[in-house]
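Hi support team,

I'm filing this because I wasn't sure whether my run with 3-methyl-2-oxobutanoic acid finished correctly. The job status page said complete, but I'd like someone to confirm that the output block is well-formed before I use it downstream. Pasting the exact inputs I used:
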Amino acid sequence: MSASVSQTAGKITTHVLQRMKNNHEKIAMLTAYDYSMATLLGQAGIEVILVGDSAANVMAGYKTTLPITLDQMIYHASSVVKAVDKPLVVVDMPFGTYQGNSKEALHSAIRIMKESGADAIKLEGGHEIVESIDRILTAGIPVMGHLGLTPQSINKFGTYVVRAQEQEEAEKLKEDALLLEKTGCFAIVLEKIPATLAGEVTRSLHIPTIGIGAGNQVDGQVLVLHDMLGITMEFSPRYLRRYMNLSEDITQAVKRYIEDVKSMDFPNASEQY
Ligand code: KIV
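And here is everything the job wrote out:
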């Protein structure tokens, strides 16, 4: 096996991700929405940070990702960008800023890149948004695609169940993946689809695929940070591996602090001036 592309690279660029796929080296991606968490992700060696519109759920408490605005995404993205040098920072274009009007899509993408300093943007959908992707690419902005379960279309799907289990939808997804690659996307997120289908799509493409609930035959994985750290306990899909139980740890820490304040144990003599 040749030397790790990711470790020997400086800044992770879209070209580095392509070299990682060519070298059969898996890509690790996580979401972040703020400076402190992004700093830790960078220190740990994450390759890609997604400023996901899942911020609508985990940061703002909305039930879906639809309400988050372009200004809010730019605020989250600029906080993340300030924290890291090496990881590629990708920003989700929020619902309503790119569908159906490619000029508006380009305008939104330029605002994200200019005002946040991010490296790339991500859009949800296939053939129906190709015109927008095409126009954004003409401005030299790298685009990541997103197929399968696309949460911005939750009102059309009506449910968050596994997508593309039927032949017809699977065929459409395969066609969309090829179309996104041909249009010029540098990578595609595949969300909540059967592992065999994700493997088939991955082998049919030159560009990397990043899976979430898509099995291990993809080129990389992404999880929502607050889910994998066990902060958001109400969300428990089968694909989610929790690496910590932070909700429990934080609750216990806050309880101890409250007790210490009430009992005047905090602050003690060495904690005051
Ligand atoms: O918004 C997000 O966090 C995402 C990931 C689930 C891929 O799009």
